[in-house]
Design brief:
alpha+beta, 3 strands, elongated, 2 domains
């Protein structure tokens, strides 16, 4: 039908391994679901599955590395669990704006709030998500309620000093100045 439908299918094939498998098993069915003609489906089928897998894997690692830049504390606290969690997340989320890497990092932090990670990791992800929303979207005020004092972690990247204590992290912009504090 159109280039847009082909691009939409390709974008999904690059990010969703389950859809990729289904497409190569039943290309017509999946292609028709995306409003493609038989000719357009045949053009996509001509791309070898190995090439598509290679590009999809490259895209995954690029997204992961770019998201890491926005959420370094979350990456640090998740450690070796970060790549598999990000892979799980990336299978279901496709950024829609021109700020794809910012959107990936923000949505990954939201994704963690629904998952099976430690309370400390949840708090760090919430902290970074709020910070991204404040700076990335030009907010004038942002705050989040934390269950742990995460200031020691921010200072030395160690979790053993973290005490359970409810606090609010607050960011506020007054004129050209930005302030961050805890209450």
């Amino acid at each position: 039908m159109s280039l847009k439908e082909q691009q939409n299918l390709l974008a999904r094939l690059y990010t969703d391994s389950d859809l990729r498998e289904k497409f190569f098993a039943e290309p017509d069915k999946i292609g028709f679901d995306f409003n493609l003609t038989r000719r357009e489906i045949a053009e996509i089928v001509e791309i070898a599955p190995q090439e598509l897998d290679f590009f999809a894997e490259s895209l995954f690692w690029k997204r992961l590395r770019e998201a890491e830049k926005f959420i370094p504390l979350t990456v640090k606290i998740l450690g070796c669990d970060f790549p598999p969690l990000f892979r799980q997340f990336s299978q279901t989320f496709n950024p829609q704006t021109v700020r794809k890497h910012l959107e990936d990092a923000l949505e990954f932090c939201r994704f963690l709030q629904k998952g099976e990670v430690s309370e400390i990791a949840l708090n760090v992800a919430l902290f970074e998500r709020t910070k991204i929303e404040f700076f990335g979207y030009g907010k004038r005020l942002a705050f989040c309620k934390l269950a742990f004092e995460i200031e020691p972690f921010l200072a030395d990247n160690r979790t053993e000093n973290l005490k359970r204590k409810q606090k609010f992290a607050v960011w506020i912009k007054l004129g050209n100045k930005t302030r961050h504090f805890y209450i």
